[in-house]
Write a structure and sequence with these properties.
The protein has about 110 residues and is mainly α. Helix content is about 50%, strand content about 10%. The protein has one domain. It comes from Flavobacterium kingsejongi.
Length: about 110
């Protein structure tokens, strides 16, 4: 399916190749390079092609989270910072984590 999207940039085609193969992808670039714009385009296209799919999107900044949520308003889209994502997954294990950390010895 990625080959059929000839109007897209090579990097975006590679992202769709990853999606089509059920793989994760990393979109990286410097400040102002268009990462959020590209990500929004990819998310919109992915949702258009599969409206019932659940999409998880992790980014580094709250500003990017807000912008993506505003530009792609879809019930199956979950956008968060990587820090919030990790916290949501480990916060239920605080007691166990504390116990494990306390067992470490410094040499």
């Amino acid at each position: 399916m990625a080959e059929g999207r000839l109007d897209l940039e090579l990097e975006v085609q590679e992202i769709f190749q990853s999606i089509d193969e059920g793989r994760n992808f990393l979109l990286s670039g410097g400040a102002g390079s268009g990462k959020t714009y590209s990500l929004v385009s990819v998310i919109r296209q992915a949702i258009l092609e599969n409206p019932t799919a659940k999409v998880a999107c992790m980014t580094y900044t709250n500003a990017a989270v807000k912008e993506i949520e505003e530009r792609v308003n879809h019930k199956n889209l979950n956008v968060s910072t990587i820090h919030d994502f990790l916290w949501d997954n480990i916060k239920h294990f605080q007691k166990e984590l504390k116990e494990a950390i306390c067992k470490f010895r410094l040499y």
